[in-house]
Amino acid sequence: MDLRARFDEITDDLAARDPDVEESQMMGRPCITAGGKMIACYEARGTLAFKLDDEAEREKALALDGARLYDPANSGRVMNGWVEVPALHEARWPELAETALRLRKENSV
For all residues of the chain together, what is the average pLDDT? Predict the structure, then answer.
């Protein structure tokens, strides 16, 4: 499956189950938002970045081969709490998106 189509599938699945979830555009990239806040972002280089505001969840994601702190401009300035996960782990993307959504909801209370 095309990686962008995979992103769309994940977005559609989350949106079907949660009315706060929608696809949007931020920083010139397709993203998933929940309550107007970005929780995941698709990169044309074939990766998906996730907002993981929990240190343990972030460390689990960073343990995946090729995962890294998210630096959208490749400028050495990473986004706080974000992890970029390569297509090698696309099977884990839905789980990571669910985690990002859960953390967003927990942090908005």
Answer: 94
